[in-house]
Each structure stands twice: as structure tokens, then as C-alpha cells.
């Protein structure tokens, strides 16, 4: 059974008062810091709304889910698209998050082209257990403001998939959100029919913390 909800019903992340916020990073400054070696892969941060946000370590359930998602997507679509796992996407709100999985228009993303941008992204997925508040809050807002058409949260904690569609780029929210439970099937506007069970790791995997 599916449960339509509004995104406003999900937990929201509040932000600190303006006077307490640290200096904001621009995309240019962030890229320069990476190019100069000031920030490296060992720093494990991503840029969201001009802030450097620490990234959570990847646990076994998360890794199993990501592998299943990658294999399922490649089996279905083959080389039609570019698949990216935990790699940056560049968004227009001083953000360069590293979502767990992205299906993008096929091209060679590199120094000349840059990372995928909002118009390149066909499906964006976060795999969430301990990051659920962040993925439903600031990350969702960033993706909606950028106009990401289809955003999934694979919710390992509750063994469900939360599908967000129809972004409102003025307010940073999605007009349609539907929760699909473990036994449900659903239709993705981009990808067609999916079974929630095919997207989740086996229940015994969740004994390992993300």
C-alpha cells in the first residue's frame, strides 16, 4: 500500500541565525581548494549552500544497497546513460553534493565539461539510515531548488523508498512525495517499474550500522 504525503510533513532541519553562520564557500573557492590540494579525498566533505558538510562513512548495508542499485540500473539501461556513485554534482545554489547514486545523460564528465549539472541529471538517489534527517531536509531543499526532477530516498531504517517528484524551484520543495513500503512496486517517471524489495539489502544486513 502506498502513502501519499507532502514533503512538509517530513522532519525539517532548522538553520542557525545569520550571525552564527560561518563564512560561506563559493563554488569557485571550493574548486580552487581542491585543485590546490587544500581539500583532498581524505577530508570527506561536500558543499551544500556554501557550507562544508562532513560525510558519513559507508557501512555494509549502504554498500550492498548501492551495488544492487548500480547493477539493476546497468542491467536495465546498459550504456544509454552515465552512472555515478558518490561522485559530485554541481548545482546552482553554491552546492556540490556527492549523492549516493545518479543516472545522468551520457557524456564524458571531466575537466572540460565538469560534473553533471541539474539539466544532466535524470534520477538522483540518496541511501539513508543515519542521514535521514539531512536527506529529507537540506539535501532535499538543494535538489528541489536546482530542479532535480526525480529524487529518491532509499530509507534503510524503515525499509521503504520515498519518491519526490515535481520540484518547486521557488520554495525548494517537491509538490509530490510518495512513500512505497517494502512489498510495494512503483512506477518511476524516468525508469519505469521498480520493486522496493529489489532496491533494499536483505534484512539481516541492517544489523550492521551504516
Describe this structure in words.
The protein has 210 residues and is of the alpha+beta class. The protein has a single domain (58-207), classed as tt1808, chain A (Alpha-Beta Complex). It is 21% helix and 29% strand. The strands form three sheets. The chain has a seven-stranded mixed sheet. Strands 2-3 form a two-stranded antiparallel sheet. It is globular.
Looking at CATH, which topology would you report?
Answer: tt1808, chain A
- Give me the count of strands: 11
Average pLDDT score = 88
Q: In percent, how helical is the residue content?
A: 10-25%
Q: How many DSSP H or I helices?
A: 5
Question: Topology as H/E string?
Answer: EHEEHEEEHHEEEEEH
**What is the terminal-to-terminal distance?**
27 Å
- In CATH, the homologous superfamily goes by the name tt1808, chain A
Low-confidence stretches: 6-18
Major beta sheet, strand line-up: 1-9-8-7-6-5-4
Radius of gyration: 17 Å
Would you tell me the structural class of the helices and strands?
A: alpha+beta
Q: What global shape is seen? A: globular
Number of domains: 1
Q: What percentage of amino acids are in beta strands? A: 25-35%
Outline the biggest β-sheet: 7 strands, mixed
